[in-house]
Amino acid sequence: MPEYIKRLQERRANVWEQAKTLLDTAEAEKRELTAEEEQTYQRLNADLDAIDARAKDMAAAEQRTKDADEAFRALLDKDPAPEARGTAADQETKRVRDWLTGVSGRSLDITPDQRIPLDQRTLSKLSAGAGANTVPISFYNQLVQHMIETSGVLAAGPTVLRTATGEQLQIPKTTAHSASAGIVAEAGTLTANEPTFGQVSLDAYKYGFLLQVSHELANDTGVDLLGYLAMQAGRALGNGFGAHLVTGTGSSQPNGVLTASTLGKTGSASVAGAPNADELIDLYYSVIAPYRNSTSCGWMMRDATIATVRKLKDGNGQYVWQPALTLGSPDMILGKPVYTDPSMPAVALGAKSILFGDFSTYFVREVESLRFERSDDFAFNTDLITYRAILRGDGDQVDTTGAIKHFIGNAA
């Protein structure tokens, strides 16, 4: 397996070199890509994305194998005493399986391991080398993982607050800092110079969906039903909640990070909404150093925008997009990680197509448990078990002084 991963990584680097050669040739001849070259360039971009997807699948499969080995080892070595039968993770898995098949009650609350904060676990599971091998996967963490794959905001390192109940949560914030101190004459009067404070309210909006599974599938122990249900639930909740974390209006829904961002750079009128390298650099430096130097600082855009950004060079002829050195790690633009989210607008005139800044200043609130309920009667005539999943959460930008800024295509 390590040899295959190495070959896959070498292939990714080779594909990127082919794409660079194509772009460099056109630039040297002072022309745009021909139709055939553009088609080749798009194919190479698709190859890069496919390799990245395969790397993620391999990492997930490796983790599942480790979990299965641990589970079998626990079963073979278990103590016959009831109190020693299985680990806490085994007991949790059995509890979920009993609920799935109707052995236990119709309602199930899934809660995370409170010993490890959510944002630390998600960051540590991005790659095996970062600590994924030390974190066992349970049903709840599979659900969060799939939500992260769907929502770029959750992957970008926001501040996640988990509360036991869903009452409105007030977060204090500064809207303006004290101005600079000035020289005061002897016995002169000191001028008032106070910071300005405000509040951000985080509610608990409810997201939910139904999922139906046949009794045959639920009773088939050879099927990874937990993984399937986690994947489907994570994608459905992530598509709903995750989209609002980007573009939510803040009225009866979360205030999205894109909605709350401030203007960092407006594109030139010469290109229809797309940025050039200088404009990305301007956007980069429009965010002040304390936020720019944060470990949670990065870029966010949709996949299609990356294909445009990969073509850009700075004033020294270097590509601003830098492929990751290891599979599974985020690519870089100007030394900062790039996160993709399908809810980000496409490049267009007047579109806020790129975000850059410190995503830890965006707060995501989640009510503690993800609620699941089962009904054997809802689809009685088709012999389907119906599951209902409920997530309650909210999101808003706490620091509104310019911690996260956007690029907007020129509307002229």
TrEMBL record:
Residues 131-401 form the Phage capsid-like C-terminal domain. InterPro entries: Phage_capsid, Phage_capsid-like_C. It is found in: Virion. Keywords: Coiled coil. It holds the Pfam family Phage_capsid. The keyword Lyase does not apply. Residues 16-54 form a coiled coil. Its main location: virion. The keyword Coiled coil applies. It comes from the Bacteria. SUPFAM superfamilies: Major capsid protein gp5 (SSF56563). This is Phage major capsid protein.
